[in-house]
Amino acid sequence: MSISLTPAAADRVKRFLERRGHGLGLRLGVKKTGCSGFAYVVNYADAIGGDDVVFENQGVKIVVDRDSLGLIDGTQVDFIKDGLNEAFRFRNPNVKGECGCGESFTV
To answer: How far apart are CA 67 and CA 96, in angstroms?
Structure first.
């Protein structure tokens, strides 16, 4: 099982954590929502719970709850800048379909 970051995503997370002044790393998960079923949840990881799995990639800790891990195992997180827009992008090998707006996915 693994979650990985591209160099651009790792750099972005490191810079956000430096500006924030605290935090252990990146918390990644999913929630039921949207027209396709699931959406990614990205936040700071301030603590590691007993139900969390921790990966380290590109010098960044990635914390994922066990319930989400089955849906996002193998995902690569990238950070994309396109003009004024910037966002994390997910390359999830488990995805079977996405909604038209790209906000949710099915597995």
So the answer is: 18
DSSP 38-66: EEEEEEEE----TTEEEEEETTEEEEEEH
State pLDDT tens for residues 5-18: 999 999 999 999 99
On the CB side of 20, CA atoms within 13 Å amount to 15
In the block, which residue shows the tokens 């707006």?
Answer: 101
pTM of the predicted model over 0.90: no
Spatial separation of the C-alpha atoms in residues 8 and 29, rounded to whole Å: 20
Domain 4-106 has what CATH class? mainly beta
